[in-house]
Amino acid sequence: MNESAFTASPFVSPRRPLTADDAEIRAALADAALQPLLPALAHLTGDLSLLRPHLRPDPLLVNQPQAGFDAEQQAEIRALALETLTAFRDGGSRPAPPPSDDDLLAIMSFALGDPGDTNGRPLADYLPLLAEEMAHGGVDPRAPDWTRDAVAPGRDFTVLVVGAGMSGILAAHRCDQAGLDWIVVDENDDVGGTWYQNTYPGCRVDNPNFTYSYSFAQRHDWPYHYSPQPVLLDYFRACADAWGIRDRVRYRTSVTAMAWDASTGQWVVDTSGPDGPGRLRVHAVISAVGQLNRPHIPDIAGLDTFTGPCFHSARWRHEVDLTGRRVAVIGTGASAVQFVPEIAPVCADLTVFQRTPPWLAPTEDYHDPVEPGMQWLLEHVPGYAEWNRFCIFWRMGDGALEAVRVDPAYRGCPDAVSDLNAFTRDLLTEYLRAAFADRPDLLEVVVPRYPVGAKRVVRDNGVWPAALKRDDVHLVTTPIDRVVPAGVVDADGRLHACDVLILATGFQASRFLAPMRVHGIDGVELHEAWAGEPRAHLGISVPGFPNLFLLYGPNTNIVLNGSIIYFSECGTRHILALLRRVLESGAAGISVRREVHDRFNEAVDAENARMAWGVSDVNSWYKNDSGRVSQNWPFTLLEYWERTRGANPDDYELHPAAS
Fold first, then answer.
1. How are beta strands 480-484 and 487-490 bridged, if at all?
2. What is the pLDDT of residue 1?
3. Is the dihedral of CA 311, 312, 313, 318 positive or negative?
4. pLDDT, tens only, 538-597
5. Residue 640 above 50 pLDDT?
6. What number does CATH give the domain 303-359+455-503?
7. What is the rounded average pLDDT for all residues in the chain?
8. Lowest-pLDDT range, 404-418, 482-496, 620-634?
9. Which residue in 28, 461, 505, 566 has the fewest CB atoms around it within 10 Å?
């Protein structure tokens, strides 16, 4: 095992005794996120009397500023916290013993607004997940608890990780912890994946960094609540450096093809790198190329005839100066909502072509730095960072799932799927009405006519409406007919002249592993076997392809802005459990049984059909060309965690080594 592997976060300093005076603590509490504050203090001190019923958050309001607490509640929470923290300080900063499961359940229930059973499961089922996800003290409970030397001493076993983004860095680290040999290849010049490639103006994460980060590699000094691209790239570089990965990646190297060699129990992998074609022989392959890595270029007649600069937002051309130029943007999805407000002030004229308006999630602190007092609390109050993380994890994950689940008995608004979905729609519609109150012409075309959750909901702190309302910005909802050398012609025959054309048209999300050619048992090619319908068991394993594992594979996308890092951590643990079985058994490889794979995918399809994104016919990258939802996980985050904690031997078949 690499000695650089660690079980504590490289970013979090050891806890020190609390020595601040009352004034400093009071000032910090003014900046506190209040939902996790009393739960964290109850956990720290063992005083559950802090969990007062009238200070419990309302589950319907937890996404509002300060979890919907009114001014009186906020003042009382801060006063209680000040009293508790000063007493903790004066008592020597000695935390109480860890709470019992019953007390922990009471604290969790209070923190989440006493949701009771959720998504058909009692809240107590979440206790083990809570303990893992909070990773108290920077421990790493998802690390492999075995090594190759312990389970298969002397056996050679090399894993190829394709991609050095968030998932690839994690996979290499886990292999290193297990004492496996590993190789990482990446087509880029550095680690970071999507955060290396996407450098468009305004690029930032839409999930708070307290959850969009490895559970075991937390930092308390995030500069922003939702960090911009350079901060995220630096984080992943720092992790890769700390774990001894970054200097070992083979950069500017792509996998072109791979084939399973049953005679040797190895994958034969063809690569293309700086020195030309190459070939590797490895025992297992982890694809960490993700879903959102290949830009989608729309099929618009005449696109190649445009005479000015034309580029996709994911391949931003920074040498193209937009100052004083006429710019056209095709698309109004997540990327456009981020970069249009950034470029609008410098363009002479900006035309935005909208096919379908996005739902906007009002997020006041979307561009805000983390308040100094909040950072102080995260660093100085034991448990506060962990409870803050779990509250975010909940309200953006399983706590929001019911809002997008179809109620078959619902007979209300035709553009909603349940009473709760309609309630959410009303809240978001009111935000749009307020933002566009002075522009009824725009309001008419920016309110979506599909259920919330049927497409990706994007975050906004007011900058998108402000950009669209500028005199020099024009929102066009007439469909595009063609592109000509001078600009874009709409279906009414009107030419929208422009000097620069930017495509904000998303990614080829359904083309998993493209453009690699992958041959499994008996030479079966993966894409031909999929026939346009990519499927995998748990998004990870495909029948007939031993020791091939996918991260962020089919049906592992999280719709409600939960952190995909969570799925990668769960998936990587599952992959390491499968590799352990291979090593312990002496087999050459392992693959999921066909009947298990098919049964799982039938359940996925059935559940997706009961979700807003499954019943709506709105255009969405969640669906492939046939209309199947090939991207999204329709179940709870708890269920994915449960199903990936280990590897049920009955679900897999071992492939013996050649004699």
1. antiparallel
2. 29
3. negative
4. 999 999 999 999 999 999 988 876 789 999 999 999 999 999 999 999 999 999 999 999
5. yes
6. 3.50.50.60
7. 93
8. 620-634
9. 461
Ordered by start, the domain boundaries in the chain are 148-191+245-294+512-598, 303-359+455-503
Model confidence at 288: pLDDT above 70: yes
Closest CA to 130 of 318, 394, 459, 405: 394
d(CA 449, CA 143): 45
| pLDDT confidence bin for 15, thresholds 50/70/90 | low
Length of the chain: 659
**What sign does the CA torsion over 297, 350, 348, 307 have?**
positive
CA 484 to CA 320: how far, in whole Å? Answer: 20
* Contact of 420 with 406, CB cutoff 8 Å: no
pLDDT bucket at 10, cuts 50 / 70 / 90: low
* pLDDT tens readout for residues 401-426: 999 999 999 999 999 999 999 999 99
What the block records as the tokens of 537 is 């068991």
Return the structure tokens found at 301. 């007649």
pLDDT over 70 (residue 148): yes
Read off the pTM: 0.94
Sequence-ordered strand ranges (E) for 305-367: 310-312, 326-330, 349-353, 360-362
Same CATH fold assignment for domains 148-191+245-294+512-598 and 303-359+455-503 = yes
CATH fold label, 148-191+245-294+512-598: FAD/NAD(P)-binding domain (3.50.50)
Q: 121 near 636, Cβ under 8 Å?
A: yes
Q: Is the previous residue joined to 515 through a cis bond, with omega within 30 degrees of 0?
A: yes
8-state DSSP, 287:
E
Classified as helix, coil or strand, 105 is helix
Separation of CA 354 from chain center: 25
Q: Taking the alpha carbons of 580, 586, 588, 589 in that order, is the dihedral positive or negative? A: negative
Look at residue 186 in the predicted model and tell me its pLDDT.
Answer: 97
Q: Which helix or strand (DSSP H or E) is residue 390 part of?
A: helix 384-395
Q: Could you tell me which residues come within 8 angstroms of residue 284 by beta carbon, excluding any fewer than 6 positions away?
A: 157, 158, 159, 160, 267, 547, 548, 549, 579, 582, 589
Q: How far apart are CA 647 and CA 659, in angstroms?
A: 26
> CA 385, 389, 392 angle in degrees (round to 5)?
140
Task: Copy the structure tokens of residue 19.
Answer: 């020595």
Beta bridge partners of 258: 269, 518
Please name the residues in contact with 41: beta carbons below 8 A apart, sequence gap of 6 or more. Answer: 47, 50, 80, 81, 84, 85, 381
> For residues 363 and 461, is the Cβ–Cβ distance under 8 A?
yes
Q: What one-character DSSP code corresponds to residue 243?
A: T
